[in-house]
Amino acid sequence: MRFNARLPAVLLIACWLTQPAIANNNTVADKSAVVAAFLYNFALFTEWPVLPADEFRICIMGSDPVLAALEPIKKKQIKEHLVSITSISTTKQANACQIVFVGKSAHASIEDLTKQIGKAPILVVSEANGYDPKSVIISLVTQQGRIAFNINHTAAMENSLTLSSKLLKLALQVY
Amino acid sequence: MIERFQKLPIGKKLQAINLLIVGLIILLTTLNLSYYMFSSLLDDYQKKAATLSGVLAASLDSALMFNDAQTAQDVLMSLRSVPDVAGAAIYDKSGRLFAGYASANNPYTPSPTFDSSQYGQKARLGNASQNYSLPILGVAPDREHLGTITMHMDLSNAYGDLLKQIGIVLLIGLFILAAISTLLTKLQEYITQPLLSLTDVMRKVSKEGDLSVRAPSSSQDEIGELASVFNQMIEELSHREHSLNQELRERRNIEEKLSEIAHFDPVTNLPNRHSFENQIEKALLNHKYNLEKFALMYIDLDNFKYVNDTFGHHIGDLMLSRIAERLRNSLRKADFVARLGGDEFVVIMSDFTDNAIISEVARKIMASLQPPFSFEGREVFIGASIGISICPTNGKDGETLKRQADSAMYLAKKLGKNNFQFYMDEMSRTQKNRINIEASLRRSLERNEIVVYYQPIVNIAEEKIVGFEALVRWIRQDGTVVRPDEFIPLAEEIGLIVDIGRFVLETSATQTSAWVNQFGLSFTAVNFSSKQFKKSNLADDIFNALKNARLEPCNFEMEITESVLMDNSIDSISLLNQLIKQGMGIAIDDFGTGYSSLSYITSFPISKIKIDKSFVAKLPKDRNAHAVVTAIVGLAKSLNLKVVAEGIETAEQLECLAMLGCQYGQGYLFSKPVAAAEATKLLESRRTRSA
User: Fold this and answer.
1) What is the 3-class SS of B592-607, one letter each residue?
2) How far is B80 from chain A (nearest CA, A)?
3) How many residue contacts between A and B have a Cβ separation below 8 Å?
4) What is the ipTM of this complex?
């Protein structure tokens, strides 16, 4: 009987609040580290038609704390390539990169960048910041203190990039 | 429980033991099988959990990598359609809960941190769930550890299935048990059936004593052995019983023979005196306890001694056995008849209401003895005197009853034989006295108390003794002489007259024969009573006696009274004719006092008339007597009959008679009746008158 007394507890159906793995942290460093990890993970779920023989280049356009946060990634390998982190200042420099992260300071030049890249297989990632999100392939958004992302699948396919369905599934929006 | 088991028949015991063993086997098998089924079920659940976890883990890596708990949650929700999953949880690589799922009807709550100790162990019987964990790894080639997925399988359905399966197994077990039980029932008959039939046979032998049955020996085992040993035992028993029975039969035969000798009279086959004593004891006891009356009848045959003397003991015995047969036939089955010895029989009868019935039985007995018995072509008549005493009317003890029946029987004898008398208490003293006289009279012949006296008969003209009249005397032991008129009626009554008559006849014939030879005596006259005439063979008796004495019939004279002629006319006449033809004289005694019928004087064969002494005593003065005597003498002369005057006491009487022409005289004037020796002296002296 005493055992049955616990029955009401059974009714506690599992409807707990989904706690974010990373706490709502406004510190820039923390956010940059998450973005850096995202960039690395994006590389894992994306297939490029051709990769340069020497290294896998992640480029940061404009100044952004993410550059510093990417330091640990250098030690890892992506698709059996050594990883290089490069800071670029012009759109032309982007052609040698596999991933281009557009920092806040360079948001104004996104239009130019996309024109410059054209149909080249370069994954352009940026934080959503009032511009047309369709101009980049993956745009990061902050939702309830958690970083999520939207994917412009059409643009990715035009640029001959194959995004994993898992990635597409995780996206908030896919155009 | 054990006591109950011991009371069971062998068949049931065997069945119980077999069922117990089979039941145990089935139970153990079921348990074993259940354990096996349970572990294989758990294996199934483990595999299912592993598969599910693997599948989910493959699609969860990205969610973990991008920290997308929502997606991870959504992935876990796909478990809703999978049964038997109580819940699942995803932990990140630091072990914190990342996403969780619980089925709608399960109280599962994932723990906030991952505890590896709860996983990796197989569930035990009784656990509610089976836990499983699988690490989630990143993308190749690094395959870094991203987190852990845990799966919690709900085992309630497993238990349900397990119970169902155990139920089915048990059901099958029960079915097998029932089948085995049925089979055992059939099979055990091979053991119990011979035992039961053996028991049946034993019961038959012990209860009905039937030793002819044998146990069937169907099997070759111990029971078959038992049956054959049992059969041997019965064989032995039956053999012993047979010889025992034979011995018993022989012994019984011997006992029967002994008892027959002890209790039966060999001559008549009737019970003997010993049996009678037993029977009267029984009858007395029966009266004592049941108030049953009974009568005692003493039966004494009349004149049986005569039969024995005349025909010999052989015929006597033959006659006794025929008499016994008639007695038995005239009695009812319940009546008891025995021979006490000699010519005495006794009957004990019960079941009567009054004396009339006893009288009827007594009459029936006498009637049965009425028809003559024939031996060697001769017919013999016999009568019986019966005395009856009744218990309890006359007495209540055996000795008294026997004495009373005996007295009543003597009374019957005294009252003329061939009748029956009831014993009566008020028998008069004189009757008793007469009975005493009677008893001594019966013994008188044996004791030689009966003597023949002789009175001379004188030829008046020649004054010479020509003959004697034989007169019987009873000289009792005390010396008193009893005259014939005092005891002859009694002797006639009790039937002794025949014996006495024969004695007188034989004695006087012998004596006369001597006198005829020595002195040329003419005759001796002997008196015969009417009772003697009733005997069928009186003539034979007389001729036998004369023959034995070597005396001619012409030297013998028979004296009879008128009444003999009157009573027994036809038979008597033929007898008298027979005698007179042989030259025997026949005298009419006491003539003138009876009928003195002229017709019989002329028609009957007589040779002499004896004038009654009453006339002689009145002579010579009484004219009437004178006239009568004159007439008788005249009549006799004219009919050519001799005349004897009796009772001559004086010379005047003699003178008168001589003058009247009377030929013979007899009386005290000549001599009183004297004994044979004195009579011989009278003949020697040739005197007519005694001194």
Assistant:
1) CCCCCCHHHHHHCCCC
2) 13
3) 63
4) 0.73
